[in-house]
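Worked Example 4.2. Consider the chain below.
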Amino acid sequence: MATTITRPRLKQRYDDEIRARLREELGLGNIMQVPRLEKIVLNMGVGDSLKDGRLLDAALEDLTIITGQKPLVTRARKSIAGFKLREGMAIGAKVTLRGARMWEFLDRLLSIALPRIRDFRGLDPSRFDGHGNYTIGVTEQLIFPEIDYDKVVTVRGMDITVVTNAHTDDEGRALLQALGFPFQGMPAVSAAAS
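Applying the procedure from the previous section yields the following structure tokens:
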């Protein structure tokens, strides 16, 4: 019996309609020049783990639940006496998502998690790095519905970086806006609309 593999709905929407529309909007000659997502990196700093090791374990568990992938423990590159930090100590966790997991995570972020942020008024459109990559700072992991509020040891924020192959910030902004990123002062295009 053959199994059918379904593409994530946001990926399917990108392939079917967003890609062709972006090609026209950006005036590109070839469909392969249209910007696309490369990866999404989630980074959670756990500097408090120097005092209590359980905090790092809790952060790793939260990232595993949110992404469905085992996080990598990040370690200090050099010693800093003022912070009582030694080279090699565990100070954070990160996950790099690619392929179907990346598209599924982005869909959940845009349609479920971001609307759950208190007093959310849109994302800052100036957070691009000059190469079309965008970083979001989230103040608490509780915006993701997978996280059980009763099992949270401490509320912790994270950085979510969306890496694209766009050459300029304008191309990256056009891609993310077409995918449904709710930027401040720009009309939002719903990710579920079709």
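The longest strand covers residues 37-45. The CA atoms of residues 13 and 194 lie 8 Å apart. Compare this with Example 4.1 before moving on.
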